[in-house]
Amino acid sequence: MDHLDNEKRRSEHTLRAYGATAERFCGFLMEHHGRAVDEDLLRGLGANDLRSYLAVRRAGDGIGNASAARELSALRNFLAFVGGSNKAVPQLRGPRVKRGLPRPIAPEQAMDLAQNMASTATQNWMGARDFALLLLLYGAGLRIGEALALRGDVLPLGERLRVTGKRSKMRIVPILPQVAAAVQAYVDACPYDISADHPLFLGARGAVLSPAVVRANVRSARRSLGLPERTTPHALRHSFATHLLAGGADLRSLQELLGHASLASTQVYTGVDAAHLMDVYRNAHPRA
Hints:
The protein is mainly alpha-helical. It is built from 13 helices and two strands. About 60% of the residues lie in helices and about 5% in strands. A two-stranded antiparallel sheet has the order 1-2. Helix 2 packs across helix 5, helix 6 packs across helix 10 and helix 7 packs across helix 11.
């Protein structure tokens, strides 16, 4: 876990998932081989051991192809770490996973969501906070974790914002005047002091706002508005990317704005735009 955190700079979610997989795998090996798990055992594993583990996970826990692929990726990283310079990781073809398209929401739905959260908050300043946060997610394409990691030293917001993303990768994102105004309105209404070394978005008691609270508020708002289940904080980032691409943004620029390490991660949004065009075609063409 220290290796993943300090050397690989994996996210908190990856640390939790990979750690859980390694623990499950070691528990399986103790039963499968009937002995304590040590480095010799781990270095001597073959593809059949991995295949047996995944079979147990499928049969006992009902995991699908996507989960099995993630488990296999975690195991490969674990065994490569154990092997050190002798990285003889068993070769096993992973299950085929059909990559799903991101599921954005329409611009008016994003604004309806932000306005609903603002109007239904228990306190005015919390409504201003939620409104500013959602505008930041949609207007700048931030991940929820990136937005909540912002501190008071970013104030006052200008035309650009420096964001720390996955693996501590820095990027610059543009800030719309409407977004900057919403953030400033929240700061002015907030009853707590937001100093340079304190979180920008605060919870009811003045501590950093929890992402679970944001997700719960979004869930409540989408039900109130009758929006689809795919309406989540992360869907606003998908919407940011999809709407930029539909408006003529090129993939390389979009990659930089989203902070993707690989262009392949950004190219998935071309599928979203193509799907939208097909819907328009089917609805509009007289022969469709």
